[in-house]
């Protein structure tokens, strides 16, 4: 989503909204003002009192910049009155100004609404929050793709509580998060914003976020509904190809888990089209499924400028001038409720369209009722402004416990990919050469951070210096965006003088200002790639350091998988740290030196080459073979020809669920509490896991299922449950993973969800390819 600053030009000064309401009935005893009345009764009472103009206002988003000067902080009262009258649903506040300005202007707006407008309907106050409250000095957590590698929903829920508390401290009551999209198209720039490739894992983490945020009385807005991210050629906002079975089997489950099971108060629809139907105006998705099947009661909102795409990009109506009537007629009847800013604000035409008979007021009433229901249930009418005085707010924002949580989540998200000859953990007295463009000089955060965020935080060099007790030196080696090798000599000399080299390379994104200014980046919204290789001189730098003969630890600091098989084979150790938190360097150092035992597992598969895509683990039956006839081209120029592929391997280099530890774990005694089941049963698959090492550690126990005979083509295997288990050295635990038999169904040839009789093979293991035991269950 992109919001651009806009200057509001008003031809006529608008007087206080209440001035035009003289003669309307007194609201002294209005039922909607009674917090003891039922929500449905309050909604009905308030709706009955609203004019069509007031209803339309509740379906349009405003912006704090309509009344707050970004440079001076001065209030434009006329702008506030205008925005409240015509764009009263909400206002966006994700702008880089001092936090006390935000709080002051949020309070002024809510006070004006309560005291100077007839109905006093409080506004949603909205901003970003996928890995931190988008404001100065707010705690920055690592990116969602990293959260997913922690496989720890409890930590993600704690993070969401922290983000919500920081946001609420200045008056924000709605966050544009979590992202329930799947990261299955790795060329797409927004992989970093997802919880990975699997619907069950993504759903559990998105659910955790919703529960956490809303427990702190801040609304979550689940996005981008639905199936956004798997676009044609990996291009942002491009079309997504697929059928309804794929939508229901693969893409919808994580949204449903967050939206329905989590009780999310709002949903953001998406930019793309799916099978030729724009998500923003898809009646089957937004009404048949979301409302009629799932019984969702709250509201949906377009993404920024997404409504205009119906005319401009999709060519479904005239764009010059914009056919606003057509836009409203596409979106509102389909089940789209609120229009976000960033476009032509077509929903402002609703009063005219109702009076001319082009849309029915009943449609408008339905959308407004959904908005009001969310506002009542969130408690906005009782607490329009939840912000704290500046001194108190400053104690909540960037609180010490939030920073500590950011480091812990970061530590649990780091994935150890290779550890040849058990080089790691490093000795603390070792002389370490820290090398690479991502090692120091800026914080390599993902997108959706506030301006200048890259200037604060703990870099890898900072972290290693703080933990290591030996000599630590630094050489940049190369710029991230350059092919120049001018800095190689210094880096090589540093490595040769050290006991071990730590080389940090990867991808990079930008903060919310830089990202839209056209500065170079290799990931982020609208930043898509046709190669997953390291850019510029980064891999040559790694090769040069490895060539010194000194043990070399390579750290990928990135927002998506990197294709570098040579590094996997030749570096002494390889660590994946997806875009870090502000404590990223401290988290990395704690893992490198062994203060923390790595426990992260990949939430997304790593291909060997971009041409292998897609490589997600849950491919359909008849997809890639477990043992393909793979060819190979070697560094020395020799070629070994195969067929799948001629000179390559379609299997992932690192599969979903993979990750090493400094501990070793043994699995045994896989069993089921019942071998014959019916559709109403829940089956428990148990396994004994033992830490066979002398180091305490954590293991993610993963349970997959294979439907042995199905009436349609289904995924080869699917993750059905997982648990992260803490095991002391030598300790054993019996782990039980529960699966509802009802969740083993398929969407059959008639597109009906059925649980078919037959055998189901349950596989327990440490990744999607490393199975330690299995058991078969029969559904009669």
From TrEMBL:
<feature type="signal peptide">
    <location>
        <begin position="1"/>
        <end position="16"/>
    </location>
</feature>
<protein>
    <recommendedName>
        <fullName>beta-glucosidase</fullName>
        <ecNumber>3.2.1.21</ecNumber>
    </recommendedName>
</protein>
<keyword id="KW-0326">Glycosidase</keyword>
<dbReference type="InterPro" id="IPR002772">
    <property type="entry name" value="Glyco_hydro_3_C"/>
</dbReference>
<dbReference type="InterPro" id="IPR036962">
    <property type="entry name" value="Glyco_hydro_3_N_sf"/>
</dbReference>
<dbReference type="InterPro" id="IPR001764">
    <property type="entry name" value="Glyco_hydro_3_N"/>
</dbReference>
<dbReference type="InterPro" id="IPR051915">
    <property type="entry name" value="Cellulose_Degrad_GH3"/>
</dbReference>
<dbReference type="InterPro" id="IPR026891">
    <property type="entry name" value="Fn3-like"/>
</dbReference>
<feature type="domain" description="Fibronectin type III-like">
    <location>
        <begin position="699"/>
        <end position="768"/>
    </location>
</feature>
<dbReference type="InterPro" id="IPR036881">
    <property type="entry name" value="Glyco_hydro_3_C_sf"/>
</dbReference>
<keyword id="KW-0732">Signal</keyword>
<dbReference type="Pfam" id="PF14310">
    <property type="entry name" value="Fn3-like"/>
</dbReference>
<keyword id="KW-0119">Carbohydrate metabolism</keyword>
<keyword id="KW-0325">Glycoprotein</keyword>
<dbReference type="GO" id="GO:0008422">
    <property type="term" value="F:beta-glucosidase activity"/>
</dbReference>
<dbReference type="GO" id="GO:0009251">
    <property type="term" value="P:glucan catabolic process"/>
</dbReference>
<comment type="similarity">
    <text>Belongs to the glycosyl hydrolase 3 family.</text>
</comment>
<keyword id="KW-0624">Polysaccharide degradation</keyword>
<keyword id="KW-0378">Hydrolase</keyword>
<dbReference type="InterPro" id="IPR013783">
    <property type="entry name" value="Ig-like_fold"/>
</dbReference>
<dbReference type="InterPro" id="IPR017853">
    <property type="entry name" value="GH"/>
</dbReference>
<dbReference type="Pfam" id="PF00933">
    <property type="entry name" value="Glyco_hydro_3"/>
</dbReference>
<dbReference type="Pfam" id="PF01915">
    <property type="entry name" value="Glyco_hydro_3_C"/>
</dbReference>
């Amino acid at each position: 989503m992109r919001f651009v600053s806009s200057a509001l030009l008003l031809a006529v000064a608008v007087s206080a909204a209440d001035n035009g309401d003289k003669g309307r009935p007194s609201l002294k005893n209005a039922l909607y003002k009674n917090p003891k009345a039922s929500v449905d009764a309050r909604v009905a009472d308030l709706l009955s009192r609203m004019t069509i103009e007031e209803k339309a206002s509740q379906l349009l988003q405003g912006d704090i910049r309509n009344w707050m000067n970004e440079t001076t902080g001065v209030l434009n009262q006329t702008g506030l009155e205008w925005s409240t009258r015509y764009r009263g649903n909400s206002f966006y506040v994700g702008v880089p100004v001092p936090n006390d300005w935000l709080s002051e202007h949020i309070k002024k707006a809510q006070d004006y609404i309560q005291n100077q407008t007839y109905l006093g309907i409080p506004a949603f106050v909205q901003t970003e929050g996928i890995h931190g409250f988008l404001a100065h000095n707010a705690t920055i957590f690592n990116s969602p793709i990293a959260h997913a590698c922690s496989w720890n929903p409890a930590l993600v829920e704690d993070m969401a509580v922290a983000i919500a508390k920081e946001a609420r401290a200045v008056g924000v009551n709605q966050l544009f998060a979590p992202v329930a999209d799947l990261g299955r198209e790795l060329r797409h720039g927004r992989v970093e914003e997802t919880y990975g490739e699997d619907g069950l894992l993504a759903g559990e983490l998105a659910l955790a976020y919703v529960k956490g945020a809303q427990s702190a009385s801040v609304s979550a807005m689940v996005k981008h509904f639905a199936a956004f991210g798997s676009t044609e050629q990996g291009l942002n906002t491009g079309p997504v190809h697929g059928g309804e079975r794929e939508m229901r089997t693969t893409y919808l489950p994580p949204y449903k888990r967050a939206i329905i099971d989590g009780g999310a108060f709002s949903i953001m629809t998406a930019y793309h089209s799916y099978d030729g139907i724009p998500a923003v105006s898809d009646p089957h998705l937004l009404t048949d499924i979301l409302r009629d099947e799932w019984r969702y009661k709250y509201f949906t909102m377009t993404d920024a400028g997404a409504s205009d795409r119906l005319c401009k990009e999709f060519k479904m109506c005239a764009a010059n001038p914009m056919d606003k009537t057509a836009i409203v007629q596409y979106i509102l009847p389909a089940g789209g409720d609120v229009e976000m800013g960033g476009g032509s604000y077509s929903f402002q035409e609703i009063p005219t369209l109702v009076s001319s008979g082009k849309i029915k007021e009943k449609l408008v009433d339905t959308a407004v009722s959904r908005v009001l229901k969310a506002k009542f249930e969130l408690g906005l009418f009782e607490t329009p402004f939840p912000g704290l005085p500046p001194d108190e707010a400053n104690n909540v924002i960037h609180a010490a416990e939030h920073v500590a949580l950011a480091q812990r989540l970061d530590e649990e998200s780091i994935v150890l990919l290779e550890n040849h000859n058990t080089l790691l953990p490093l000795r603390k007295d070792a002389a370490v050469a820290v090398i690479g463009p991502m090692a120091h000089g800026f914080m390599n955060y993902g997108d959706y951070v506030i301006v200048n965020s890259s200037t604060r935080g703990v870099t890898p060099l900072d972290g290693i210096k703080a933990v290591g007790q030996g000599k630590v030196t630094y050489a940049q080696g190369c710029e991230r965006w350059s092919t120049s090798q001018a800095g190689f000599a210094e880096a090589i000399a540093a490595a040769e003088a050290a006991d071990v080299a730590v080389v940090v390379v990867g991808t990079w994104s930008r903060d919310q200002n830089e990202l839209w200014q056209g500065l170079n980046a290799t990931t982020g919204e609208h930043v898509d790639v046709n190669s997953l290789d390291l850019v510029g001189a980064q891999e040559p730098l790694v090769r040069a350091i490895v060539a010194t003969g000194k043990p070399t630890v390579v750290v990928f600091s990135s927002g998506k998988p990197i294709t570098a098989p040579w590094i996997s084979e030749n570096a002494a150790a390889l660590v994946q740290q997806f875009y870090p938190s502000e404590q990223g360097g401290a988290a990395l150092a704690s893992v490198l030196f062994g203060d923390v035992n790595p426990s992260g597992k990949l939430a997304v598969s790593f291909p060997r080459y971009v041409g292998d895509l897609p490589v997600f683990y849950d491919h359909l039956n008849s997809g890639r073979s477990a043992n393909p006839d793979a060819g190979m081209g070697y560094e020395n120029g020799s070629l070994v020809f195969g067929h799948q592929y001629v000179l390559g391997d379609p299997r992932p280099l690192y599969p979903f669920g993979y990750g090493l530890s400094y501990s070793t774990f043994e699995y045994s005694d896989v069993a089921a509490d019942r071998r014959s089941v019916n559709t109403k049963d829940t089956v428990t698959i148990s396994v004994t896991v033992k830490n066979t090492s002398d180091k305490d550690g954590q293991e993610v126990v993963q349970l997959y299922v294979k439907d042995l005979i199905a009436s349609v083509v289904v995924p080869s295997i699917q993750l059905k449950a997982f648990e992260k288990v803490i095991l002391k050295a030598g300790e054993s635990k019996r782990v039980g993973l529960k699966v509802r038999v009802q969740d083993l169904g398929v969407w059959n040839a008639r597109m009906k969800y059925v649980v078919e009789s037959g055998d189901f093979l349950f596989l327990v293991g440490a990744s999607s390819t490393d199975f330690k035991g299995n058991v078969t269950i029969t559904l009669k």
